[in-house]
Design brief:
By secondary structure, the protein is an alpha+beta fold. The chain is built from 13 helices and ten strands. A hairpin with a 4-residue loop joins strand 8 and strand 9. The relative contact order is 0.12.
């Protein structure tokens, strides 16, 4: 055999050896590649759904786990199922609506990260990143029309005002207005856009509550840099208020009084005094004016509903005790789902907002034991600011309310709260 033939045979052998090596390498790589971790494939065995089945025998623990009783949960599940149900594939069985909803409620109730939540749900963090925002949007979609309904007619506004007068003895009140900062992990390269006056990053939730501590308006998404009462000017509500397109009733005579006063929203020092928005007198304006102190007490009493609403929601959904680390769109979905769930549970679950959630007044001593407040979480008040000189008409209206509260609208115990 010539040297050329030997060289050709050697090259051919080398080529065969390389091909065999590549084939083995490819085969080994395929055997080593897994589409899912083994323990995640055992969802039916280890998932928290099994724990829930056990908790059915202990209703209190079920409620603590999902923030609602079983009946309320099953009703919610029936509503959202058409929007979150997926079909099985030849590769795997779909994650059920029951698993999707319970994982979402646990995320909202605990504020746990996806990486943490995957161990109890046996759903991968990658899947949870899709499932939870999608389910939050479904919750908001199915509940908003019935449970987060903004008044549209004069009759509906008068119904809200009538409840305020009955429960809180503040006539012609259309709602209590306030805003809170919601802590977030800011998007990359956002700079100081979300940086607020407390040195944290946030988005602002503006809301109005009715006399039953239910939200009738929620507007979320203004960046934390707008950290004062001016943030309300970015809301659709404020634009309609200033354009007089909310169908608010015209001023009218108060019950059992000759006074004619407009319908108003009550708010705190973060907002400007307007003919349709009443805020308290400043401390420097109270000296020697008991009627103004009484006004501040009566207004504060009516405003408690929004403070309690925020406080109860933040207590039940501890996602508000964290810095929410999601995309901006998904943060919006999470927060709005919590707002509508709050209303849903106020109406559907008696134990959701128990008596100890609310302020308790001792009318004999003139003291108040404070209930739940959002400040116990990471939610912060919007900053106070000097609003400048309010319009004269607004000052006159406030004085008229103050005069009413010390005359025909007087409460027997109110003087105890200003001594």
């Amino acid at each position: 055999m010539s040297s050329e033939e030997e060289e050709s045979l050697a090259l051919a052998g080398l080529a065969v050896a390389l091909c065999v090596k590549r084939a083995k390498s490819a085969s080994g790589s395929k055997r080593g590649r897994k589409w899912s971790r083994e323990w995640l494939l055992k969802r039916k065995t280890y998932t928290h759904i099994n724990l829930l089945a056990e908790l059915r025998a202990v209703p209190k623990d079920w409620k603590n786990y999902l923030r609602m009783n079983e009946e309320t949960y099953l009703n919610l599940l029936s509503l959202v199922t058409p929007f979150i149900e997926k079909e099985d594939t030849v590769m795997r069985c779909a994650i059920t609506p029951h698993e999707r909803l319970t994982a979402t409620l646990r995320f909202l109730a605990t504020g746990r990260s996806y990486e943490d939540l995957k161990f109890s749900t046996l759903i991968s963090a990658q899947a949870l990143r899709v499932i939870i925002p999608e389910t939050c949007r479904a919750i908001y979609k199915v509940l908003q029309n019935q449970y987060l309904k903004f008044p549209q007619t004069e009759e509906e506004w008068k119904s809200v005002a009538g409840q305020f007068e009955q429960d809180w003895q503040f006539p012609h009140c259309l709602g209590a207005l306030d805003g809170k900062h919601v802590d977030i992990i800011p998007p990359a390269d956002s700079g100081s856009l979300f940086y607020n006056y407390k040195g944290r990053h946030s988005l602002v939730l503006m809301a109005i509550a009715n006399a039953k501590c239910e939200f009738i308006m929620c507007d979320f998404g203004s960046n934390g840099r707008n950290s004062d009462g001016g943030v309300i000017q970015n809301t659709l509500f404020y634009r309609k208020l200033t354009n007089k397109s909310l169908n608010i009733p015209a001023e009218g005579q108060l019950d059992k009084s000759h006074r004619v006063l407009p319908y108003v929203f009550v708010c705190d020092d973060a907002f400007a005094l307007r003919p349709d928005m009443m805020k308290p007198y400043r401390m420097g304006d109270l000296t020697g004016h008991n009627e103004r102190k009484i006004f501040n007490y009566r207004l504060s009493r009516a405003r408690r509903v929004i403070e309690s609403a925020f406080g109860i929601m933040a207590s039940r959904f501890r996602i508000f005790h964290t810095r929410i680390n999601l995309s901006l769109d998904n943060i919006d979905a999470v927060v709005m789902a919590c707002c509508v769930l709050h209303n849903y549970l106020v109406k559907s679950s008696l134990s959701y907002a128990s008596a100890d959630c609310f302020d308790v007044e001792n009318i004999n001593c003139g003291t108040t034991v404070q209930g739940l407040r959002a400040e116990d979480s990471n939610m912060m008040n919007i900053a106070r600011r000097n609003q400048g000189n309010p319009m004269e008409a607004a000052k006159i209206i406030r004085e008229n309310f103050a005069d009413y509260f010390i005359s025909e609208g007087k409460l027997p115990w109110q003087d105890n709260f200003i001594e």
